[in-house]
Amino acid sequence: MMTNKELLEFAEIKKYLDLAIGKKKAKIGANLTLKEKIKSVNLSQYLRGVIYFFEYSKLFKNPSEIIDFWKENRDNDAKIDLLFKEITDFPIWLKSIKNLGDSTCVSYQAHIRGFLSNNNIRLTFKNYKPKTQKRKSQNKLGITYEEMKEFAHKIKEYITDLDLKVLCEFLHRTGLSYKEIADITFETLRNKDYNQEYILIAGDREKTSVDYVNFLSPDLQKLILDFLRVNQEKEDSDKLFGADTNYAYHKLDMKFNTAYTKTCENHFPRLLTIKTSKGNMKKLFSLHSFRSVFKTASDNLRIIPENRDLFIAHKSEKMTNYDLISDELLSDYKLIESELFGKKTNESATIDQVFDILKDLVSNNGKRKAIFRKYQENNEIDMTTEIRGVLFLEQFALNLEKKITENVMENVMIEVKKNFQNLSLKDLLSTFQK
Fold first, then answer.
1. Which residue of 130, 243, 259, 390 has the lowest C-beta tally within 10 Å?
2. Which is it for the CA torsion 310, 311, 314, 316, positive or negative?
């Protein structure tokens, strides 16, 4: 088995490290030499997978052999298929022979893929998904969305570390991933106007250049203000959990594991029955699971995909105008918040508020189409029906105006419920299809 020192003798490895480490260290120390870069990182983070690959491979003994193989056979599909299979099967060998966990297998495969990419060997891989085993374990135990939603609340009761509290609350209430949150600077949070009820927060996912738009809800704002007070000495340019976000993640994840065990022992004991191949506890709710819960809540509420993807920094399948932030986004966010945290809607709305809602539905073409998309099933509601629906809403507004006055303001919601009770928008529109 090759060592780090032996691998560093190869020019191809130096090229790989210079590019890979250079990307990571660009923001920490500019103009570092390769030797300085190597000293500044944990080499196993980049080379462990490469070392294991040459122990596993039947085709190659060292990095130069892969490069030579590619140069000689890049136009030979049969030969390139051999290289492709060698790399695709690598995680299976790691799992069965080295008894490594799913995520570690994927990380080590990523090392060899990075080595190839940084040496201009372009292969398109079908991603090996570590979530598959986790999902299988969840299905085996019959774990439901409702249980995961409850778990998300329970685990926070066992977290005492302030950094981890802020991270979990951020994950839970925004659906963003750790990376987006960890890249936020103190300056970004300090410059927000905390007099607003819901504060807009926007950015982009650096790795994929995908924009996100989200909100800091009132409950999250309280925790953020405490966090900012405790970290008054931090520079504006400092990231929330430290410059080395990967190191911070592993540190926080270890504390999260402790909270996970306590949550399972006290509330979800059957989750402790799932073990890894080494007999260790297999975690079925991770930090990333907060994001999964947020996404599932969005889907259950039929939030249109464009808005859902904008919240969680997913690349949307449809073109979306990210330059204009509509009121619909905040409305959708509040729906998700209500689903996840059980917030009650204000049932003492005034007459003006009711009419504003009706007027908005009738006059706002974009919002109206969005509502119809949410409730449309199997394309059964066509544009003709949509027009009938708008006419219905206009007529309903006129009728409602005749029935209620400012003197009976408390009856507004009763009147609305009487007209809409137990009817979906589709049910209402179906009466106009004849």
1. 243
2. negative
Asked if 123 and 87 touch (Cβ cutoff 8 Å), the reply is yes
Q: Where are the alpha helices (DSSP H) in 162-318?
A: 162-174, 178-182, 186-190, 218-230, 245-266, 289-300, 305-312
DSSP conformation class of 158: T
The token pair at 407 is 């003197």
Tens digit of pLDDT for each residue in 74-125?
778 788 888 888 888 888 888 888 888 777 788 788 777 777 777 777 665 5
Give dist(CA 263, CA 283) in Å, integer. 11
Read off the pTM.
0.54
Neighbours of 80 (CB within 10 A): 16
Helices 351-363 and 383-403 cross at an angle (nearest 10°) of 160
Q: In sequence order, which residues have a C-beta less than 8 Å from that of residue 228 and are 6 or more positions away?
A: 186, 189, 190
Model confidence pLDDT, tens digit, residues 134-165:
667 777 778 888 999 999 999 999 999 999 99
Report CA torsion sign: 225, 227, 228, 232: positive
